[in-house]
Amino acid sequence: MIFGNNKLDMNLIEETVKKNKVPVLVQYEPFKELIKMESNDSISKQVKELNELIKEKNMIEKQLLDLQAKKPKLMAKIIYMSNEVNENKNINAEQELDRLKQEMEDINNNIDMIFEKLEDMPMLIKEKNLNLLRETVKHSYERINKGESNLSDVNDKITKLRKELDELRINKEKEEERVNSTYQFIHAILGHKDMEKLDSNFLK
Prior knowledge:
Residues 43-117, 144-178 form a coiled coil. Keywords: Coiled coil. With 204 residues, this protein is an all-alpha fold. 86% of the residues lie in helices and 0% in strands. The protein has helices spanning 10-19, 29-37, 41-86, 92-190, 192-202.
């Protein structure tokens, strides 16, 4: 696989990123495995920012649930205190009723603020996620091109070594043929017994 194009077309990357359905990368296992092997400072920074944004969203959602859980109990107290004031003419209950109503108003205001924040969160997370994907795609293709270049160098060296090995194999076969031919000639001339004596003296 040769990519060859060292200059990345960022417009093409942008179009491709936008038209594809993208999972939240920091929660996507293949991405987590990828950045263990391939990452850079920009990707690491954006991963951290996206994680913080998701953490903030989860925290806000928990705050919303906690506030919503308080409302039924608080409303029951308000109804009880209202009954004390209106039916039983309990003057001492008026101050507590005012406090409870103020607490309910504060809770409702906080809930409204949280809903406003939560409305923006999906878009913020999506945009941060797309930024991370853009950087990851860019870095990945840069790394792929670099890897392809390195592989080309390695393949050239392998080709050279194979050629050298072929030459060595041919030389080896020629030497073996020369040695065998020479030995067979001497053996044919001198005979087996005399050859053994010479072998023991001259062969290493």
